[in-house]
From TrEMBL:
<dbReference type="GO" id="GO:0005737">
    <property type="term" value="C:cytoplasm"/>
</dbReference>
<dbReference type="InterPro" id="IPR020568">
    <property type="entry name" value="Ribosomal_Su5_D2-typ_SF"/>
</dbReference>
<comment type="similarity">
    <text>Belongs to the GHMP kinase family. Homoserine kinase subfamily.</text>
</comment>
<keyword id="KW-0963">Cytoplasm</keyword>
<feature type="binding site">
    <location>
        <begin position="93"/>
        <end position="103"/>
    </location>
    <ligand>
        <name>ATP</name>
    </ligand>
</feature>
<keyword id="KW-0028">Amino-acid biosynthesis</keyword>
<feature type="domain" description="GHMP kinase C-terminal">
    <location>
        <begin position="220"/>
        <end position="279"/>
    </location>
</feature>
<dbReference type="Pfam" id="PF08544">
    <property type="entry name" value="GHMP_kinases_C"/>
</dbReference>
<keyword id="KW-0808">Transferase</keyword>
<dbReference type="InterPro" id="IPR006203">
    <property type="entry name" value="GHMP_knse_ATP-bd_CS"/>
</dbReference>
<dbReference type="InterPro" id="IPR014721">
    <property type="entry name" value="Ribsml_uS5_D2-typ_fold_subgr"/>
</dbReference>
<dbReference type="Pfam" id="PF00288">
    <property type="entry name" value="GHMP_kinases_N"/>
</dbReference>
<dbReference type="InterPro" id="IPR000870">
    <property type="entry name" value="Homoserine_kinase"/>
</dbReference>
<protein>
    <recommendedName>
        <fullName>Homoserine kinase</fullName>
        <ecNumber>2.7.1.39</ecNumber>
    </recommendedName>
</protein>
<comment type="pathway">
    <text>Amino-acid biosynthesis; L-threonine biosynthesis; L-threonine from L-aspartate: step 4/5.</text>
</comment>
<dbReference type="GO" id="GO:0009088">
    <property type="term" value="P:threonine biosynthetic process"/>
</dbReference>
<dbReference type="InterPro" id="IPR036554">
    <property type="entry name" value="GHMP_kinase_C_sf"/>
</dbReference>
Length: 312
């Protein structure tokens, strides 16, 4: 069956990973989005049009991450890749620890799912496997795919996930620095190969507590977001992030590095805590930080068919 002429629209949420102690495991989908339209055309090759974040910066040919993700799914499923025309409208900041690469990968995987509808059926576990193969770790792609709070782990059969809903009091704020970016590869290179046993125990206890805090007892969020596995090792690469997190935590707020940074995630136990956080950031930051008061996205990425294109 030829899929030339098919067109799909995809919407993918931003994500914040780790949430403090849950390194490479916990993630939360947030209400900022990348939108994408993809058309399968007869003429081979890839053309990408980018609007918004990344315009004039990200590749617009077959090396584009969304296009590579679509190609990865087609190859995995043994399907011939048609020509692709992509139009991206991006809202998720790049290089800030808000899951922009995970969102691009998930957008591609979901676009491929939509284009291949009726040809092959891609279930949730397959989508997570394909996205994780490209991203390297599952903690951003799981919430981007499925929404809500996700626990992701890797079994002998590949990546797995459990989706949970968050207590309605939990109020996320992400503070995004305007001039500072961070590469996940650099952040990961600062991690040691092994950690003290006591630190591992410390994080096991906080991660377990964090699930309870997020779904049932938000008043425990401050205690539950302590971490000894990654943030201190990476602090020298993002000194302002580190300094601001100290100020926020000293004031009783559950502040952590968002993903690999440099943005800061504050998990308010009620909406008013976000105003306190925004004020503290305004007072103590020496560069410009944008406080984004966000909701938890519970749907995750969506894909829908568009009317059959005339460009086939
Ligand atoms: N768990 C990942 C990290 C998230 O902190 O390196 C960023 O991709």
């Amino acid at each position: 069956m030829s899929i030339v002429g098919r067109a799909v629209a995809v919407k993918t949420p931003a994500t914040t990973a780790n949430l403090g102690p849950g390194f490479d495991t916990l993630g939360l989908a947030l209400s900022i989005y990348d939108e994408l339209e993809v058309t399968a055309v007869a003429e081979p090759g890839v053309i990408v049009e980018v609007h918004g974040v990344g315009e004039g910066e990200v590749p617009t040919d077959e090396t584009n991450l969304v296009a590579r993700s679509i190609a990865h799914v087609f190859a995995d499923q043994g399907q011939p890749l048609p020509g692709l025309r992509l139009v991206a409208r991006n809202g998720i900041p790049h290089g800030r620890g808000m899951g922009s690469s995970g969102a691009a990968i998930v957008a591609g995987v979901m676009a491929a799912k939509g284009l291949l509808e009726g040809v092959v059926d891609l279930d949730s576990r397959t989508l997570l496997r394909l996205a994780t193969e490209l991203e390297g770790h599952p903690d951003n792609v799981a919430p981007a795919l499925f929404g809500g709070l996700t626990i992701a782990w890797t079994s002998d059969d590949g990546p797995e996930f459990k989706k949970l809903s968050v207590h309605r009091g939990v109020s996320p704020l992400v503070a995004v620095p305007e001039q500072i970016t961070m590469s996940t590869a650099l952040a990961r290179s600062l991690q040691p190969q092994s950690v003290p046993h006591q630190d591992a125990i410390f994080n096991v206890s906080r991660s377990a507590l964090l699930i309870a805090a997020l779904i049932q007892s938000p008043e425990l969020l401050h205690a539950a977001t302590e971490d000894r596995l990654h943030q201190s090792y990476r602090a020298s690469a993002m000194p302002e992030t580190d300094a601001l997190i100290r100020v926020l935590r000293e004031n009783g707020l559950a502040a952590v590095v968002s993903g690999a940074g440099p943005s800061i995630l504050v998990l308010g136990s009620d909406p008013a805590q976000r105003l306190v956080a925004a004020e503290l950031l305004e007072r103590h930051a020496s560069t410009t930080w944008r406080p984004l008061m966000l909701a938890v996205d519970f749907r995750g990425a969506t894909v829908g068919s568009l009317p059959v294109a005339a460009v086939a």
